[in-house]
Design a protein that fits this description.
- It contains 9 helices and no strands.
- By secondary structure, it is mainly alpha-helical.
- The chain has helices at 3-70, 73-84, 88-95, 102-116, 126-132, 138-144, 151-162, 169-175, 179-246.
- α1 packs antiparallel against α9 (179-246).
């Protein structure tokens, strides 16, 4: 009777049982890691699809904005060029009126209201208008103005001036060399203000889509980093499985190997 041999023989079932439990645990960990990796791969694919949708939404809204602006930009450019051609002699003629022709008065009133972006509480008198056009910076101010009218202002201009039957380009051009280009400018600015009002929700939608895209891009990056950590966990679980079952490490085929998104 050899006690050493007897002890070794009795220890074998214990070792086998321990090894079996370790293998079962490793298999469970491996399957869990594979499931998590598969779920993350699916979620990442959904993120990429969402990101592509946001890109298309941004392109679509940007196209609508460009189309709307395309209808008014030429009007503004033509009006600015016309105003730039107003001479000092033309301005002197207008300033010299003791009482201007009604159409000239109306055009200058409209110009003043647009530049000041303020609806007058009462009738704008010729004395105020004359003072307003007296400075040498009058033509540059009009020419370089960037449309920024409030809804109240352009609504007032539309109702009180543009919709008047007598408020026409022909009447303004006949009355004064400067009134014609200024009428053209008022009309273009009013049209531009209406378009700006129309595209305001489009711009808000465009900005919101860009913000969502930026969030999705960051989420995608975080998800890719997390996926890489999961792949590392999957590799560790595979090695533990190999060690528990075979007692050493070698490469086993993995049931699921997610691909990192480009």
């Amino acid at each position: 009777y050899d006690p050493c041999t007897s002890n070794a023989a009795s220890a074998i079932p214990l070792l086998e049982d321990k090894r079996k439990r370790a293998a079962q645990k490793a298999i469970a960990e491996l399957e869990a890691a594979q499931n998590v990796a598969g779920a993350r791969e699916h979620a990442l694919a959904e993120l990429v699809r969402g990101l592509l949708k946001e890109v298309e939404a941004i392109k679509s809204v940007a196209g609508e904005i460009d189309e709307a602006l395309g209808s008014v930009v030429p009007l503004l450019d033509d009006a600015r060029r016309a105003v730039a051609n107003i001479t000092n002699l033309d301005l002197t003629e207008m300033r010299s009126y003791p009482t201007p022709p009604p159409i000239v008065m109306r055009v200058l009133q409209a110009v003043k209201i647009v530049l000041e972006d303020a609806v007058p509480k009462g009738e704008v008198k010729w004395k105020e208008v004359k003072q307003f056009i007296r400075g040498n910076d009058f033509v540059p101010r009009v020419r370089d103005y960037s449309t920024n009218m409030s809804t109240a202002t352009y609504t007032h201009i539309q109702r009180a001036f543009i919709n008047e039957p007598s408020f026409t380009a022909e009447a303004a051009a006949r009355a004064s060399a400067a009134a014609g280009p200024l009428f053209q400018w008022v009309h273009a600015q009013c049209r531009a203000a209406i378009v700006q009002e129309q595209i305001r929700p489009l711009k808000a939608s465009h900005e919101a889509a860009i913000n969502r895209m930026q969030v999705n891009e960051q989420t995608q990056k975080d998800a890719e980093d997390e996926q890489q950590r999961i792949l590392n966990d999957l590799a560790d679980a595979t090695r533990r499985y190999q060690s528990a079952v075979y007692g050493f490490n070698f490469i086993l085929p993995v049931k699921h190997q997610p691909q990192r998104q480009a």
